[in-house]
Amino acid sequence: MTLYLLSLHQPQGELPPDPEFLAGVMRQLADFRDELASTGSWVFGHGLHGPETATVLRAREGGEVLVTDGPFAEGKEYLGGITIIDVPDLDVALDWGRRYAVATTLPIEVRPFHDGVGD
N or C: which end of the chain has fewer CB within 10 A? Predict the structure, then answer.
């Protein structure tokens, strides 16, 4: 089995969807998670607060660390949540990613974790 990250990309600056639409999305997400868990593929997942709540730490020479507010990457989307799954291969991970995209109506990035050091 291989661990994959399913990253949910949230549109920047858009208003939240209407409550009825959001309730439907949340039902689909609950079904998605329940099905992942029933197959033994669920590892972890949760939504994130917006990028304005983030703090970035950057190592500097001499062991100092610079602490700044949030990420400064310019973009129209930000990381809105993550799900980690444990599945046999990329094809299975992509299938789950497709289902996640349909459930959320948002872009989903699928990316494998390294198996270990040096790979």
Answer: C
